[in-house]
Design a protein that fits this description.
It is built from 9 helices and 11 strands. It is about 25% helix and about 20% strand. Strand 10, helix 7 (about 265-270) and strand 11 (about 275-280) form a beta-alpha-beta unit. The strands form 2 sheets. A 9-stranded mixed beta sheet has the order 1-2-11-10-3-4-6-5-9, sandwiched between helices. A two-stranded antiparallel ribbon has the order 7-8. The structure holds S-adenosylmethionine.
């Protein structure tokens, strides 16, 4: 049965096709505004939205990703307002997009009852020069809550190591021994440090302090590299990113909504972490359904870490089980 707080109301539910359901959640095919249209106010604990960026990508025949700027903003505001409406007081909203759109979203959310928490930078290093502009090197991830956050769990990230020699790449100002055994506090930059700094320098000058500027980096959100699920032409996010956000902003049994389902990354992460979930995708849902079906059957994959196949690749599954053990029993 879907989350107890969710009851679909009104006719618009008839426009949606239910394509997959588990005890924890339900995925529809259709327009997210129709799904929002059947939800009551204040029922969702967390929303993660990764809309098309209006870059002209091909998401299938029913999806236009090339709107005029004003049209795109109007459309964005329509679903942002719905996100605000269906979120419970204290609920969390994460929106992933290009900085140029997020700055508009932020201005809109600021005057619509939402509390700014963080601008998280997700470094995507394989970018290219663009005429008279700086080379864009990150996507943004806005984090707002509907008033003071209802839930803010401590989430730790593995201590970064060099992917070639396996040594730790920072000296923590001589306070390494004071770090929490679980790892570092989650930070507001999701980065891949090995792409920024020459690895040889890191190994030679391990304690030189050359890493100070990376102090607020979180560097293990990789691009999706797992062939089994990288079947879509459009963007697909790494599960570790969703797992962290869900762990940060919800507790077991809370309801997570993603209105732009894509390959189902959010639903997969929610299912794994024991959260209820609700989803919709306007285009092809087969990738998401396949991933969720596989997971239900016990077929799961190891996702590649941001640091590739280094000698001491951080063990994400161990990290996650640590988080889970803490969070499932409500210890923060
Ligand atoms: C950037 S992708 C999301 C990728 C997803 N986060 C993942 O990890 O796979 C955006 C998705 O939104 C879908 N979409 C676009 N307009 C939509 C709408 N009005 N309602 C629901 N889904 C929509 C697109 O088809 C596309 O799959």
């Amino acid at each position: 049965m879907l989350h107890q707080s969710v009851q679909f109301q009104g006719d618009r539910i008839n426009r949606l096709v239910s394509v997959f359901q588990t005890d924890m959640g339900q995925l529809f095919q259709g327009d997210c505004l129709d799904l929002f249209g059947v939800l009551s106010n204040n029922v969702v604990d967390m929303i993660f939205a990764d809309p098309p960026f209006n870059l002209g990508k091909d998401y299938g025949k029913d999806v236009s990703d090339k709107l005029k700027r004003e049209e795109y903003l109007e459309w964005s505001k329509s679903w942002l307002l719905e996100c605000i409406r269906v979120l419970k007081p204290g609920g969390a909203l994460f929106v992933f997009n290009l900085p140029s759109w997020l700055i508009e979203y932020g201005a809109f959310l600021n005057v619509n009852n939402m509390l700014f928490r963080h601008w998280i930078a997700c470094r995507m290093p394989k970018t290219f020069p663009r005429g008279k502009k700086l080379s864009p090197a990150h996507y943004g991830l806005l984090y707002y809550t509907k008033g003071e956050p209802a839930t803010f769990n401590k989430v730790y990230t593995p201590i970064p190591v060099c992917r070639h020699c396996g040594k730790e790449i920072r000296d923590y100002g001589g306070h390494r021994n004071k770090l929490n055994e679980k790892g570092l506090n989650l930070m507001d930059v999701f980065d891949d440090s090995s792409e920024i700094w020459k690895v040889d320098e890191v190994c030679e000058h391990e304690h030189s302090g050359a890493w100070i500027t990376l102090e607020d980096m979180m560097d293990d959100i990789p691009p999706v590299r797992h062939g089994k699920y990288k079947t879509r032409t459009a963007n697909e996010l790494a599960p570790i990113m969703l797992e962290r956000l869900i762990l940060l902003a919800t507790n077991a049994g809370d309801l997570v909504l993603d209105p732009f389902g894509g390959s189902g990354t959010t639903y997969y992460a929610a299912e794994k972490l024991g959260r209820s979930w609700l989803g919709i995708e306007l285009g092809d849902t087969s990738g998401a359904v396949r991933r969720l079906t596989d997971y239900q059957r016990g077929v799961d994959v190891e996702w590649e870490s941001a640091r590739g196949n280094g000698k001491r690749k951080p063990d994400m599954s161990q990290q996650l089980s640590l988080f889970r053990n803490d969070l499932m029993v409500g210890k923060k």
